[in-house]
Amino acid sequence: MTSTWLITGAxxxxxxxxxxxxxxxxxxxxxxxRPDSEGHFLEALGVAVVRGDITDPAVVREAVAGADVVVHCxxxxxxxxxxxxxxxxxxxxxxxxxxxxxxxxxxxFVHMSSLGVYAARHHHxxxxxxxxxxxxxxxxxxxxxxxxxxxxxxxxxxGVPVVVLRPGFIYGPRDRTLLPKVIDRLRHRQLRFIGTGKxxxxxxxxxxxxxAIFLAVxxxxxxxxxxxxxxxxxxxxxxxxxxIVKELTLPRPRVIPLPLVLARPLAACMEAWxxxxxxxxxxxxxxxxxxxxxxxxxxxxxKAKRELGYQPRTRFEDAMRQTxxxxxxxx
Length: 331
Fold this sequence. Notes:
By secondary structure, this protein is of the alpha/beta class. It has helices spanning 13-24, 40-45, 57-64, 83-90, 92-101, 139-158, 178-187, 206-218, 237-248, 260-276, 287-294, 302-308, 316-330, and strands spanning 4-8, 28-33, 48-51, 69-72, 108-112, 123-126, 162-167, 169-171, 192-194, 203-205, 226-229, 254-256, 297-299.
């Protein structure tokens, strides 16, 4: 039996890896891509590319028609900017997609959320029962919380077979957005540990995430559920950064001897000043940066293991070896 998957964001990091895995399984894959976006990689895989914008209802309806599975990976990412710009893509784009899926015999609608939707505090084994705050410290996370609630609302009201996945910090070969920023900041000595660097980072290798997506589609009990996803092993911030430093021969970041109780108000002041001055780039210290480099980010994946049968196949050490090999090759 053939199956057609619509993967939004397939020109990007996660969507591209998923599209590759799907075509490797003999599945029919299509995606939505802006007219000016690169599509050679997908076309070589045999992916059908519908040109247009995810906020265009006509384009979305064309892409959804005949699809059995929808995996929504497309998103505006970043740690700086106006919340309305993030909402336009991450919330309203999702709304167009969900509207087009109403009443269709979909097997599954997988919505890619983020572990960032949890409160910006220390986490030690936090699971999916944790209530989400209404407001967040950065525009991206705010829009992801609103998007997740929208997707689950369409499941309850319209019967769209939604599954929400909350991956942590996704890394792996072909990431041209998040990890390159970390590498660039290391190269220019702009990255700092807030604290000792021994606190947990919520890493997930892109290959492990792709495995989880297939499980979310295959398991009937996943519909209407939310799942945390990580590599399933403790990885400290220092361990993650030091691996990059060693493999790419970069300067090791210094430690900011600044307690969180002082770092947070300082970041708030710097962000307020940057917004008033109309800065296009984030200030040196932000709330999102404090979360990434200063907070314990340890989340439970027991629900995904129990209900999906999720068992991360690639260990952190092997995953980073593959990732760094790709970055070395690309210079």
